[in-house]
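Quick note —
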Amino acid sequence: MIDDAAGDPMRGLRWTKKTTRKISEELTSNGIKVGPNTVAKLMKELKFSLKTNRKNISSGAKTKPGDVEKRNKQFIKIKAARKSFFKKGLPSISVDSKKKEQIGNFKNNGKTWRKDPVNVNDHDFKTDAIGTCVPYGIYDPQKNKGMIVLGTSYETPAFAVDAIVTWWTEEGQKSYQDANEIMILSDCGGGNSAKSRVWKRDIQEKICNRFGIDVTVRHYPPGASKWNPIEHRYFSEISKNWAGVPLKNYETALKYIRTTTTKTGLRSRAILKPKVYEKGQKVSDHEMDKINIYRDKDLPEWNYTIRPQNVT
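Predicted structure written out below.
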């Protein structure tokens, strides 16, 4: 393989060994006595260095002609929309669901400083769990504040919208008292799926109609969730904070979310929502027709605004 290529430029000898020790052995067998350290120095002179794999290639199975152009265009739209909302002082929130966690005496990856290790169950059987933790996050980049609504059943569109409603009533209305519009940045799948009818209907009824505000939604393209601000500016900090700590009960999970902070001033809240959400809700064509939705002419499947209905 060309990525493993090295050799003697004078004699034309080439090899495909990956470590300096193996390269040294190969050279020695060809009459060139050189140690691994010298091989390393020569490799550096030849501009070789240790490289990790880089996730830059989109999956061929999912990529269609024109997808790259669409993705780039959507990132430009998101950047422009964020700039516009920030300039107007309007809320622009980043939302997503964090990885589900089992609540119980289970191993949590990471390490903590202590004299003795914490003993946990030797198997992560679901039957031994107290319950399931479904963390849905809302992150406000302008205020550098986040909120996690901890569900206990499933990540459904209804749960996602309820979590955003909780953020708006607890935080948003206080921070943006004069706001008549909010923007939601979300992924294309999960509870906030771009294709979900329940997601759009609940935004209409639970946010737009209830609070009399417009909701603009910008979805990140499929496979682009790592660029969603909540992933690298909020979820990553929570993961670091509870690393190595067994989430033995819901209160432990809430405690470590609430105490998540950074040197740049991140503040975090957590609220438990034990309501049971059922999967498989349906929205009829008739209900969809009543939704007051305005889609962008460009990439309408990922960009739209839902406005309050004239409810009497």
